[in-house]
Amino acid sequence: MLDIAVQAGPDWSADEDWEAIGTKAVTLALEHSLHADWLTRALCIEVAIRLTDDEEVRSLNAQYRGKDAPTNVLSFPMVQPDLLDSLANTDDGEALLGDIVLAHRVCVREAEEKGISVTDHATHLIVHGTFHLLGYDHQGEAEAEAMEALETQALASIGLADPYNRD
Known about the structure:
- The chain is built from 6 helices and 4 strands.
- It is of the alpha/beta class.
- The longest helix is centred in the C-terminal third of the chain and has 16 residues, at 118-133.
């Protein structure tokens, strides 16, 4: 079971059902990960998603990553990667997987550059952030290719184009 809490700031369109979008994106990432079986367990997986402004993301990025600039998405895992597998042995209970934070203007600008909707881009960024919560990374070339392939597969399963524009 998933428990996705979404908090959308005033810059984010009130016409969108961000709770449903967030839940769909987290589900997609889980379905395409090594932890897909969690979706069939009694285990409650919790993820918090904050859709905020660039200034808040800039502040978080400076504080936690030493980079004084906004970025599109930040992920804050609550479970260490080496402990994720232990959740597979749990049939009940709760696991706070972590937090995902998106910056509004960065997301809008990137969506415009890609020629896609903000909703589709935010979906991709939440999928990307969820993979980080699940222990995936893109520090090395092989890791990046593997993570990007999973993101592309997940998004393709709902009809969204390859976010990395590979032919």
